[in-house]
Amino acid sequence: MKKIEVIGLGAGDLNQLPLGIYRKLTATQQTIYVRTLDHPVIEALESEGVTFTSFDQLYQEEEQFEAVYERIAATLVEAAKISENTVLYAVPGHPMLAEKTVQLLLNQKEVEMAIVGGQSYLDDLFTAMQIDPIEGFQFVDGTDFRRNQLNLRNHLFICQVYDMFIASEVKLTLLEDLPPEYEIYIVEAAGSSAEKIEKVPLEELDHRMEISNLTTLYIPPVPEEYLHHTFPFFREVMAVLRGPNGCPWDKKQTHESLRYHTIEEVYELIEAIDEGDDDHIVEELGDLLMHVLLHSQIGEDNGYFSINDVIKSISDKMIYRHPHVFSTTVADTEEAVLQNWEELKQQEKGKERESILDGIPSHLPSLAKAYKLTSKAGKAGFEWEHVEEVWEKLKEEIDEVIEAVQEKEFTDVEEELGDVLFVLANISRYYRVNPEVALERANRKFMYRFHYIEKKLQEKNQTVQEASLQEMDAYWEEAKKKQ
What we know:
By secondary structure, the chain is of the alpha/beta class. The chain is 54% helix and 10% strand. It folds into 5 domains: 3-119, Cobalt-precorrin-4 Transmethylase, domain 1, CATH 3.40.1010.10; 123-226, Tetrapyrrole methylase, C-terminal domain (Methyltransferase, Cobalt-precorrin-4 Transmethylase, Domain 2); 231-305, Helix Hairpins (Orthogonal Bundle), CATH 1.10.287.1080; 353-433, Helix Hairpins (Orthogonal Bundle); 437-482. It is elongated, with a radius of gyration of 34 Å.
């Protein structure tokens, strides 16, 4: 079978190259493929008559590194198929450390693969920075990593920082979590005679770097004071509050005792949204998240579930109910998305629920519950064909209220008023208005105008009880114009 042999050139100069690798490279008469000529060993070997064919030009031809790596792997496989000899391919460092082309070659089945030595520069990095990896470290590719992958509490090394553009991208990503003045290290040619270590503020990273294939960034473990914005830190805060030395109030709480506090937080969030105040929204979302974490910590303390179970449950649900995003289902409109959602939801819940109306929370406010009831029944086909018919029904229910009032049947008045409110909730659905939100807006509007009346009367040393209805109504109209 045709074969590719990958040779590691080590982390430094020719003096660090193992003798066996040196002999293999200098003894061959064939041209050796190399990912890049930008390595101190290459120049020394060329002076001894070793010839190389590099892929450096591909970095100029392609916009994405992934495309470069795929072209290199494809070229090597095709070369191996037609070669009489084993194709030699040399890479910086160790072939199995941060070398995407080698991973692509190992994943193909067309030609045989062999890996030959090469010194990893991890040992040299640990020595240069005087750290023990047992403390925990992370090694990532500067051309291919995401912010949420980083564990900033560990020693963090970022390799493959080939140019200023990559350095800038790395800097911007790290600035999402770290202050501009946070000090990091630029490590050049670790372990070689050309080793150089420079400490710089993060904000100056892409202004101070000398770029080469031997450049690595080192970010020391980040103190907790900089991690207050991260989810793991907040989770630990809640665990401490519920722990042996935690807060007496937090330790005492149960799911049941928190129920109405949680409801209050939801309404406070809605109020912040209605105000359009981003800072207030952030605060209230934080309070709501605190309740999610507190309920989850209670579950974990009791041995039933943890926040991981909560997150897994909702992640699985979102993926399952969005096949148009995570699978091959097509849903190009909002209506199609909602239809898919309901069908999948029914498949999930159908075996558990006997009625279409099941699943509505019993503690939901009555107006919101009416909206949900009519919505569920409507989706099943039990609704008016035209909204005009619902308006007629509203008029009918209002007439029945008036009739009950005239007959002084106050039990009937309560029932008929309930019917009016129910029909109004149904009407709101036709116009895609949540009646609970609409009523809350009306409440807030009333409160603003009434407070305005009180303020104006106070300026005249009057109380509401002393003012006439005409006077209060005039202030009411003034308040309307100011809103």
